[in-house]
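Here comes my example:
=====
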Amino acid sequence: MRAELATSTDRATGGRAQEITSADTSIKQVPALFKSPVFEKRPGQRNLDIGVMELKDMLQYGHLELADKVMDPGYIQHNPNVPQGRDGFKTYMAKVPGRVPQEIKPEWKNPPTITLVSGPYVAFMFNRKDKDPNDPSQEYTWSHFDVIRVENGLIKEHWDEAVIAPQAAAR
């Protein structure tokens, strides 16, 4: 199986050509300006676009209603904090503080540092910053990942590095 590496989608680059590196060749992606609806997108690009819709448009810009368009009703969630199914995802994410719909822009608020596409799988790696638990005056950068599996044009499955979140202390 050949894996492709891309830094972002055409939507995020404003249609400029971008280099994609694969296991056996290096090619230039055609600018969006030259794409035509007559030509069907490659499956990897369709899957990447679906992943961008979840991670950028839904999670960074707050448009959870898009889940009905790109997530399977039986969505399998491997994050132990998020309920199973599309409706469970929407209910959980709607409770995240500060998540209100905003105008969707072509650029990411927090762009992935690495994006990999391999068949039905799309993986995104993001840099995150946190306070150093040993020295709260310091900050450190760590890597967060999201992997989705697309089946029949819908997100069927999701993985990330999440562990069970501690319950909030009772007051």
About this structure: The first strand starts at residue 4 and ends at 6. The beta strands are 4-6, 19-22, 26-28, 71-77, 114-118, 121-132, 135-151, 154-160.
